[in-house]
Amino acid sequence: MKLAVLAVVALVLAAPAWAQGDVSDGRSLFVTGCAECHGLDAKGIPGSGPSVRGVGERAPDFFLRTGRMPLADPHDEPMRSEPDYSNQEIEDLVAYIGSLGGPPIPEVDPERGSISVGFRLFADHCAGCHQIVAKGGIVPGATAPPLDEATATEIAEAIRIGPFVMPRFDERLIDQHELDSIVRYVLSTRHPDNRGGWGIGNVGPIPEGMVAWLLAAAALVFFARLIGKRIE
Question: Concatenated DSSP letters for 1-12?
């Protein structure tokens, strides 16, 4: 009996990372929900969807958990929404696509990162689209989403896969410590310290400056009218 239990434990420990999902069930879900764009053989269909062979676990996990897939129209921009699949179904799909080869879901530990290093890297690589406090923005042909709802794993997955028009940063460009640091910095932007004044939504200095100028202009008009009435 003890040997049987030990054998089961050994099999679980030796199982690949995608073993938490069922590959067979994932294949069935893929055929009914994904094959129309990605092909029954998962090699993609020109004009509809790319091959998912070799993408590993990180891409399907990111796109399915953030509701960016499936798309109603393959030409639409993937936008964050409620997932179409349950957690178990996502795990099954990730298991099936992961079984076709490719990298696993990236490991990330924000506590091992440095906020100062993450700030510098985010400013260099990400702020041009996502804005320095990760509130999102507009870029040619796409929308850079706010990162308020993204989990640590989803941020790491996006960095590694480069969804839509976002560039991809592999381990040669951003190593593990830098990945942990970027994620730690992004998470820190959700509760910024506004002790210096009114944050105005923490959307950045340009819109905040515009609000300040509008308030100042309104105050000047008010006092000008007030002074004018007194002179009369």
Answer: -HHHHHHHHHHH
For residues 70 and 90, membership in a common domain is answered with: yes
56-107 pLDDT, tens per residue? 999 999 999 999 999 989 889 999 999 999 999 999 999 999 999 999 999 9
Q: Which residue has the higher pLDDT, 230 or 226?
A: 226
SS3 137: strand
Q: Please report, for the domain that includes residue 160, its CATH number.
A: 1.10.760.10
Contact 121, 73 (CB under 8 A): no
Of 70-74, 137-141, 177-181, 190-194, minimum mean pLDDT range: 190-194
d(Cα 12, Cα 27) in Å, to the nearest integer? 21
Q: Could you tell me which residue, 160 or 230, shows the higher pLDDT?
A: 160
Tokens 């008009």 sit on residue: 221
Burial class (CB in 10 A: 0-12, 13-18, 19+), 204: middle
Residues spanned by the domain of 34: 17-98
**Contacts of residue 168, Cβ cutoff 8 Å, sequence gap at least 6:** 159, 160, 161, 162
Average confidence score pLDDT of the chain? 86
- What does the DSSP 8-state code read for residue 150? -
User: Is 103 inside any structural domain?
Assistant: no
Neighbours of 221 (CB within 10 A): 10
pLDDT band at 205 (very low <50, low <70, confident <90, very high): low
User: Does 125 lie in the same domain as 83?
Assistant: no
Residue 71, token pair as written in the block = 């798309």
In a domain, 228, yes or no: no
Together in a domain, 90 and 22: yes
